[in-house]
Structures are given as C-alpha cells and as structure tokens.
C-alpha cells in the first residue's frame, strides 16, 4: 500500500465530507422536509448524517486512491493544509450559523 497516496486520498475525502456535513447540517435546519427525511432514515437526523458522512468518506477515499497514483510531496502538503483550513472554516461556519440561529438572526 502506498502511504502518501492513501494520505492524499483520505485528506481529499475528508474535505468532501466536511463540506457535506456543513451543507447538510445548515440545509436540514432550514428545511423541515429534509430534516424529517433524515429522521425517518435512521431514527435521528444526526445519525443519518453520520451514516452518510461515513459512506461518503469511505467511497471518496477508495475513488481518489484509485485515480491518483503519485500525489508528490508538494501536492500532499498543500492538500493537508487545505484539509486543516477546511476543518477550521467548517467549524466557524457551523458555529456562526448556530449562534445566529439561536439569536434568531436568520
């Protein structure tokens, strides 16, 4: 197994999963039908989001691992920096959304 290739694939899959979680979380809070569908899927909307996130991460990791054979050190480093930035930005967006939602700003 090619470790840098796996790290690269995992990082890209994690970025995609972060984007998915941020989007689906905000969308579900603003759309009652979506939130109800997520609840009906597994019993609780957070459980459904977790299931879909795990499937997305696993699937994206396999696909990216198959598509990219040698990411190179610079590309790998940039991807990991982008993963860190995506994590921070996703956290900030969700915190801002729930803060505004709590204070009924939107």
TrEMBL record:
<keyword id="KW-1133">Transmembrane helix</keyword>
<feature type="transmembrane region" description="Helical">
    <location>
        <begin position="50"/>
        <end position="68"/>
    </location>
</feature>
<protein>
    <submittedName>
        <fullName>Uncharacterized protein</fullName>
    </submittedName>
</protein>
<feature type="transmembrane region" description="Helical">
    <location>
        <begin position="7"/>
        <end position="30"/>
    </location>
</feature>
<keyword id="KW-0472">Membrane</keyword>
<feature type="transmembrane region" description="Helical">
    <location>
        <begin position="80"/>
        <end position="100"/>
    </location>
</feature>
<keyword id="KW-0812">Transmembrane</keyword>
């Amino acid at each position: 197994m090619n470790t840098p290739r796996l790290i690269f694939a995992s990082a890209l899959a994690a970025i995609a999963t972060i984007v998915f979680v941020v989007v689906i979380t905000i969308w579900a809070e603003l759309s009652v039908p979506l939130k109800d569908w997520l609840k009906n899927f597994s019993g609780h909307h957070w459980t459904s989001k977790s299931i879909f996130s795990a499937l997305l991460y696993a699937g994206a990791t396999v696909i990216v691992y198959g598509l990219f054979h040698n990411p190179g050190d610079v590309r790998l480093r940039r991807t990991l920096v982008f993963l860190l930035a995506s994590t921070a930005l996703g956290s900030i967006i969700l915190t801002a959304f729930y803060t505004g939602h709590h204070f009924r700003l939107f």
